Amino acid sequence: MYQQMIFVNLLTDDVAATKRFFTELGYTINPQFSNDDCACVQISDTIVAMLMTKQHWSQFTQKELVDSTKASEVLLCLSAESREKVDELVDKALAAGGTVHSEPQDHGFMYGRSFDDLDGHTWEVMWMDPAAVQAQG
Predict the structure, then answer these.
(1) Which of 30, 33, 63, 114 is deepest in the core (most CB within 10 A)?
(2) How far apart are CA 78 and CA 137, in angstroms?
């Protein structure tokens, strides 16, 4: 069966720093689609983040570009397999230079934390109890 993928495109001011940041979170950089203007971050088999310089991004749109340190452009949310994995990933992001976006959200059956990366993009990481999801179904 075909596995649909998502390619999230985001702006970055410093491709080299972005590569280091996401590598420290445990992700890999795909060199085939990375260069001085773009970092191709492989998050999973089906999720890829393309972090591009403004000059490179401008080839794809005529719209005004957003400064993600001053305006919210998108909230990205990644699932985690446990509460501990939520904490592990967010703690790695903070140690790599990210900043806390908001306080942790703990609803018992669902737990999440969020951080802003080096360019101000907000990443939420959340875990939801599979039993609670099945009970809703």
Answers:
(1) 114
(2) 21
What CATH code is carried by the domain that includes residue 36?
A: 3.10.180.10
Find tokens 């998108």 and name the residue.
74
Range of the domain at 38: 1-60
With 0.85 as the threshold, say if the pTM is over it. Answer: yes
Q: How far apart are CA 87 and CA 84, in angstroms?
A: 5
> What tens-digit pLDDT sequence spans the chain (137 residues)?
888 899 999 999 999 999 999 999 999 999 999 999 999 999 999 999 999 999 999 999 989 998 998 998 889 999 999 999 999 999 999 999 999 999 999 999 999 999 999 999 999 999 999 888 776 65
